[in-house]
Amino acid sequence: MTVSDTHLLTVENLSVTIPSSAGAVRAVDRVSLALERGRTLALVGESGSGKSMFCRAVMGLLPRSAVVPGAARVTFDGRDLGGLPRRELAAIRGREIGVVLQDPLSSLNPVIPVGRQIAEPMRYHLGLSSARARERAVELLAAVGIPQPEERLGAYPHQLSGGMRQRVAIAMALACEPKLLIADEPTTALDVTVQAEILNLLGRLQRERNMAMVLVTHDLGVVAGRAHETAVMYAGRIVEKAPTVELFTRMRMHYTRALFDAIPRIDDPPHRELGAIGGQPPGPAAQRVGCPFAPRCWRAEERCRTEEPPLARDAGENHSYACWFPLSQEERP
Amino acid sequence: MRFLGGKLLHLVLVLLAVTALTFVLLDVLPVSVAHEIAGQGATPADVAAIREQLGLNDSVPVRYGRWLAGICRGDLGLSLYSKQPVSTAIASHLPVTLELLLLAQLFALTLALPIGIVSAWRADSKLHRLLGTLGFGLASVPSFALAVVLVYLFSLRLKWFPATGCTPLSEGVRVNLKGFVLPALSIALVEWVALMRVLRSDMIATLQEDFILLARARGLPDRRILLRHALRPSCFTMLTLFGVQTGNLIGGAVIVENLFALPGVGRLLLSSIFSQDFPMVQGCVLLIAVGYVTVNFVVDVCYGMLDPRVRREASGG
Ligand SMILES: Nc1ncnc2c1ncn2[C@@H]1O[C@H](COP(=O)(O)OP(=O)(O)OP(=O)(O)O)[C@@H](O)[C@H]1O
Ligand code: SF4
Ligand SMILES: [Mg+2]
């Protein structure tokens, strides 16, 4: 049995570098992971840790200047995405992978009625007639919990509330019944009360449709109970990865602990800095020597500054982490 | 309807202001109309008689009031010299101006739209830089210089188009259009650059938007993304500029009209100013102002068509 038989998505050794005036940014650094059909992988990390770039790399939608070193391999549903012609790749993107982004207002075209935006990929990829696509759009709007869906078809994004817009964006992503949904911080721009609604909606749709989902967030709190597996990203690398329950009960990374302590309380503003630890993630030109977290880690020793810890797992466990001096039993939350 | 009503009121106010201002400005000029008409050997008495006859002795407000009253009756007055009704003169010059303007703007858009779109799409390419240089070069050439080059190439050397003159439409559309191609091109070749630039920069900004990334994520082809998703939200600045340019051309294509001997409004206005033919100047100014406001109105309507957000504001008063 090959890997692709059980896995919908496998990513091997994916790196993305983006040239900039301050030197090349390693936005994504040697990321490998795999996702089974119908399951959810959460990707958690601070702002700038490379979560969005990773998603864009999977879809083949990187900025023009980005470079992906040759060793990378992205396999989706048995097909190597790197080796596909443009047209086929576009067809996969449109039909089999759905995407929801952070800001629902900027995710929707301001000058096209939402009904038409939802119908567009169905007409284009599935060849539906405009009447049929319209019907499907109504069903989709109903499925994402929009009241009076027929009347909403003609609405423009600015006429809807933030939560409604995100529901529309989700309906759009689901239009062609994708096998994988990539949700890049789907609730960050929303009110706290709406956030839970949208996350629950995503979970329900995912179960109903047996979709796999990559759920990106900077809020570790979102992950509990919503993702089968959680990968923590720092400076483009996956630094810890484990089944979600395992991660919460037996976290090994100081960085994960900091994210845990930073789980926002109800009244916090979004996108605040990590409270538990000071400092910033490494800048673009930073030399990759040693552990990238070392400048901010209270546990750092000489070895951390000279030698990069590999992402590895203890024997017999499904929990990998990249740290020389992982959290001990007493240091876990 | 309220939107329209507001626009109409605006129109009337603009027209009043512009024509009143023209009246005052013309009055400030050292007036010699009566001398001109009376001719070289005229006695002061002759001149005085003519002034009296033309009503030039009255104060500015009185004359303006008289002129306004005429307008209200639909009477633009007579030329001081030829005694031809102003409306007749305008009616014969306006079609030329309109044809020139439409053709020029059509050419300009035809160049600006595709080139702006493509160079925004390939914003990091050689083409983009080449266009930048070329555009800069063209934009810094005055239209009359371009006209001279065009005439040399296409009419003197290749003999494709006439160098000057205007054949009336009655002698056939083809011949008529031929006479307008070079003048329209020499305007368009200068104007399209600015249109292309604003379109390109707005489009580059639009292409950074999430909804474009998502359109690509939905596997739509580039062509569709550019034309269906990116173009409309990127048109607003270009549309505004297009309106301004069009407004300017109503009375402002003087140089090109003169070069190609096209009897347009610009030429009429210029010669009327030189001869201080008040009613004629006023008629032209009125026409230009109406033109400006109309163009503005059309541009506003287009905004509404392009952007539903504007539509709501407009209809909401
Ligand atoms: N369009 C771009 N061009 C160049 N560099 C970029 C671009 N977008 C992101 N980067 C860089 O890539 C790195 C990873 O950014 P990315 O957007 O993937 O982070 P993120 O984890 O999604 O953060 P956030 O929580 O803010 O969305 C950052 O260092 C960022 O500066
Ligand atoms: S390797 Fe060292 S610096 Fe890096 S997280 Fe572990 S203890 Fe901290
Ligand atoms: Mg992001």
Essential attributes:
heterodimer, A: alpha/beta, four-stranded antiparallel β-sheet, 13 helices, B: 317 residues, mainly alpha, MetI-like fold, 15 helices, binds adenosine-5'-triphosphate, binds iron/sulfur cluster, binds magnesium ion
Concise structural overview:
The complex is a heterodimer of chains A (333) and B (317). In chain A, 34% of the residues lie in helices and 20% in strands.
Write the layout of secondary structure elements.
The complex is a heterodimer of chains A (333) and B (317).
Chain A: H1 3-6, E1 7-18, E2 25-36, E3 40-45, H2 51-59, E4 73-76, E5 79-80, H3 86-96, E6 97-100, H4 104-107, H5 114-126, H6 130-143, H7 149-152, H8 162-174, E7 180-184, H9 192-209, E8 212-217, H10 220-223, E9 229-234, E10 237-243, H11 244-249, H12 254-261, H13 302-306, E11 312-313, E12 320-321
Parallel strand pairs in A: 3-8, 3-9, 6-7, 7-8
Antiparallel strand pairs in A: 1-2, 1-4, 4-5, 9-10, 10-12, 11-12
Helix pairs in contact in A: 5-6, 5-8, 6-8, 8-9
Chain B: H1 2-28, H2 33-38, H3 44-54, H4 60-72, H5 86-121, H6 126-139, H7 143-157, H8 173-207, H9 210-217, H10 222-230, H11 236-252, H12 254-259, H13 265-274, H14 278-306, H15 308-315
The structure holds adenosine-5'-triphosphate, iron/sulfur cluster (SF4) and magnesium ion.
Magnesium ion binds at residues 51-52, 184-185 of chain A.
Q: What class, by secondary structure content of chain B?
A: mainly alpha
Work out the number of β strands of chain A. Answer: 12
Using a beta-carbon cutoff below 8 angstroms, give the protein chain pair with the largest interface and the number of residues from each chain: A-B, 32 and 23 residues
- What is the fold-level CATH name, i.e. the topology of the largest domain in chain B? MetI-like fold
Strand content of chain A: 15-25%
Cα gyration radius of chain A (Å): 20 Å
Bound molecules: adenosine-5'-triphosphate, iron/sulfur cluster, magnesium ion
